[in-house]
Amino acid sequence: MDSLGTMRRTHHCNELGIGHVGEKVILMGWVLRRRDHGGVIFIDLRDREGITQVVFNPEINPAVHEKAHRLRSEWVIAVSGVVDPRPGDMANPKLATGEIEVLIDQLFILNTSETPPFPLDEDKEVSDGLRLQYRYLDLRKPEMTANLIARHRAVQSIRGYLNARGFLDIETPMLTKSTPEGARDYLVPSRVNPGRFFALPQSPQLFKQLLMVAGLDRYYQIVKCFRDEDLRADRQPEFTQIDMELSFVDEEQVIEIVEGMIDALFRETIGRDVQPPFKRISYDEAMSRYGTDRPDTRFAMELVDLTEIAAGCEFKVFRSAVDGGGTVRALNAKGCGRFTRKELDDLTDYALQFGAKGLAWVKIKEGGEWQSPIAKFFSAEERQRIAAALDAQVDDLLFFGADKNATVFQVLGELRIELVRRLDLLDATVFRFVWVTDFPLLAYDDKEKRFQALHHPFTAPRDEDIEKLATDPGAVYSRAYDLVLNGTEIGGGSIRIHQRDVQMKVLQALSISDDEAREKFGFLLRALEFGAPPHGGIAFGLDRLMMLITGGDSIRNVIAFPKTQKATCPLTDAPDKVARRQLTELHIRPDWQE
Amino acid sequence: MDSLGTMRRTHHCNELGIGHVGEKVILMGWVLRRRDHGGVIFIDLRDREGITQVVFNPEINPAVHEKAHRLRSEWVIAVSGVVDPRPGDMANPKLATGEIEVLIDQLFILNTSETPPFPLDEDKEVSDGLRLQYRYLDLRKPEMTANLIARHRAVQSIRGYLNARGFLDIETPMLTKSTPEGARDYLVPSRVNPGRFFALPQSPQLFKQLLMVAGLDRYYQIVKCFRDEDLRADRQPEFTQIDMELSFVDEEQVIEIVEGMIDALFRETIGRDVQPPFKRISYDEAMSRYGTDRPDTRFAMELVDLTEIAAGCEFKVFRSAVDGGGTVRALNAKGCGRFTRKELDDLTDYALQFGAKGLAWVKIKEGGEWQSPIAKFFSAEERQRIAAALDAQVDDLLFFGADKNATVFQVLGELRIELVRRLDLLDATVFRFVWVTDFPLLAYDDKEKRFQALHHPFTAPRDEDIEKLATDPGAVYSRAYDLVLNGTEIGGGSIRIHQRDVQMKVLQALSISDDEAREKFGFLLRALEFGAPPHGGIAFGLDRLMMLITGGDSIRNVIAFPKTQKATCPLTDAPDKVARRQLTELHIRPDWQE
């Protein structure tokens, strides 16, 4: 193999055009494709930036041409030559460099390559396991390289925006204490302190609040966080947060800053104008119209409240839902009146997963006639009122939910998304943002028989609701705000509690004893005694955001070295066994089956 | 307490000057000091940026003046008022805002504060433990805030520089496999994979090499790394690296990029021109002149080789060192001829720590006379030759080392630094950079009876030395380069091995079996089979670099939330006990004394 020596590239592989004709250039990269034609060898040379066609003609240098015969896919070469226009009919308009080729007079073979286990220039389906095992090859695919470049641009945009607005990039610890009230922690045994463990942070929440107490005013960090939870397509054991916190602000100021950041981000990453200010919707309205606090507002198909009509109808299922304090709601799947029985059965099964006891449906036929197993329970007038409420037309398909509020919202909310997915109405190139605000502070946990924080225990209640914390905790609204994009929560934040007595009242409403409070986050309570300023912030999930920006369907495609759904890395074989000596040093013993 | 409501600051506390006189402003911050004078209350209001004097005069608003009587140190307030020039003799030229004060007509008390456990506006000695326990107060000190702001500016400068040069900011995993041949790993038990452990990365070394194999060309990351080692003033369990890697480059190109980065960093962080290109020195020359591969070149006091003179002298200690294949070297502590016996004894004790068997010294008296226990062993001519070699003048003090090379280098190298420290010649505002190059690839480990990598096993040997790997491994030089600033290694890197067969030869020279190689880093060896480009890089320790830039003496002062020397956090009490249930989930059992 040849040595690089002191040779330097003059251009990358996406740079040369007609303006460079006649120039002597040096390119380096990988052999993507080789074609031999009329005794001449054509190589598509690839680097991170693109592709340039290089030509080995025996008339230019027979020895070099001879050497080029050895080249195979993914070999690494350096070539020097002169830029030449391609004959008019040979130009490739799909390639940025398609008007030229380089006539090579020197070739250095810097490395060879085995044949890759999957082709890099075809859109062939390859198993996730193989892609992750040979991640260094998978990342050579232009679309994967493009994802990492988009992510690079995104963090650059975010940092530039926040730096210009007085935010300080400050690092918080990775080896820390577990965040109370969160998901399961990853633990790190301490060698020096037997029986004690660090936790990897689920978020820098308490540290960023302490930075505000420290008077640092505006903080941000793009930072790894960790949750030891079961994985899904949009979850990884370690994930990256865009985390920020501001002092002396209210909700409006946080929202203003964030909208500017998101606007700049989309413009600078994919050249899209997302046109802030974004719409806002209260939690209650989001639930009632979309059945979820993460509404996908790219399409309508909103939920309609039929409780009043249902209260007087003959259909027992509807009546008993209303009588039991529940609700009857419906949505109109426009133009889906020709769904087959099989499709309706599938959708019913889908709905059952979310707690539905069944799924009532109505097909609207010519003349407004109802085709439905439940048609007979309704008078003509009731049918008319329901049709009017849902704006039902011929060929529409109506679905009904009748149960407790929470169940109806979840069933119809999920059904709405599933319908739109089946109808292929989800356009990944449309970006619909909506702020969800006015959340309840607490939600009653039926299993644990106590209130839980809907966000986290440091979220401020509305000033006017503080007194209700002791008397009617479920009626307290918070100062939280979530940013939802196309039905995915991409960011969540709040104005925080900065007064110790308010924090204590919230902890009491959460049934956390004084002892427990002191043990778990006594240091925050103590900090609130020394002049904590009013403050608030927000955190975004960068991986999910990048998935949406790049139009992908898995966060694994926007992470250089992700884990599988079983939290393993097929590339390095992590997690791995360790020597018994290492465990002894950490004062722990095995408790597993070998 | 008052609510912030929708009030917004108009200025920060370091912003107002004569140009703002007459303007109505709103400021928010902390009460630093309060003075009552002639019925008027003066408050120094502090925020992150600085201090502004605000004035409560009963004639402006008696109710507000009355309320201001309650204010105490570190209370958080919002005030509105009109900017007024201070009377000429009351101006404070030490303060950016010293020419004005703000006459307050509205006061909102946003939070109260207990009296801090240590004063924030005095240069009082406070224990490290207390400072870390109340870190949110310690960080309010202007010099601590300034350190974090300098660190913010530094990472901003580095990112800006590298972004402009085609580097991609790419995240590598935190939950990974242990780096072979390194320090002790922090381990993270896997819940899903019983008996298996992740390791927190000691550096992203292998991942950045894989990114080069993936064709990403130029990578950087400012990233947390972890080492479970015993701590010192300049070591933390988690530390931050500026990590980078480049494809298709040689040493010169890496050095060129780095010198530009360091130049921009010092200019943009503290306004200093460090004037690259930096000097270079080979490892061998650094050892011979300074006794160390991390030479502090802010001063001379270089080592002088006296082996040739000593070879013929009568002094047995010198003679036997030379006869045993060792060396005799000396340094001249200029002007130290009046050191007391006590000082000489102290220095001898100091030298003994580093393996010296004694410390020979000579005081040069009037007429060149030697005052020394060893004077009698040397002829007049020898004394003259030694004095000439060391440029010895009246009142100079000479120290000698005679032993194996390594011992002499270490003893005299350490003695040199200690002397300069005692003479208070170390100027933290002078920055002397030097590249150390031409390292040996391997060093023989007498204990383990095998060669160890001087840097790491992925460092490329010089092309011309590859054949010696099998025959004379100790004579192989590497393509590594370290950047040293004022005697501290701030960065280290190398051109890496990109050819599988060369990597195997190096592993063999390190006595690593094929099996062990496959198990520990088989994935790297495999990657080298698929077209790895020539590549190299470097990594800098950001914490140490910031310590030097800010002129401090502990990395703890440039980290927001550092750990103690016992790897604990007095603020949060991490590491902490965990519930037995958590251990059970992780398949481990306690092995410690409760």
UniProtKB/TrEMBL annotation, chains A, B:
Feature type site, description Important for tRNA non-discrimination: H37
Q: Which reaction does it catalyse?
A: tRNA(Asx) + L-aspartate + ATP = L-aspartyl-tRNA(Asx) + AMP + diphosphate
Protein name as annotated: Aspartate--tRNA(Asp/Asn) ligase
Q: Which GO terms describe its molecular function?
A: aspartate-tRNA ligase activity; aspartate-tRNA(Asn) ligase activity; ATP binding; nucleic acid binding
The entry's family comment says:
Belongs to the class-II aminoacyl-tRNA synthetase family. Type 1 subfamily.
Q: Where is this region: Aspartate?
A: 205-208
| UniProt gene name | aspS
State its role: Aspartyl-tRNA synthetase with relaxed tRNA specificity since it is able to aspartylate not only its cognate tRNA(Asp) but also tRNA(Asn). Reaction proceeds in two steps: L-aspartate is first activated by ATP to form Asp-AMP and then transferred to the acceptor end of tRNA(Asp/Asn).
For this protein, the record's NCBIfam families field holds:
aspS_bact, PRK00476.1
Keywords, A to Z? Aminoacyl-tRNA synthetase, ATP-binding, Cytoplasm, Ligase, Nucleotide-binding, Protein biosynthesis
> Which amino acids does the record list as binding ATP?
R227, D228, E229, Q236, E489, G541, L542, D543, R544
Q: Which organism is it from?
A: Desulfofustis glycolicus DSM 9705
Query: Record-annotated residues binding L-aspartate?
Result: E181, R227, H455, R496
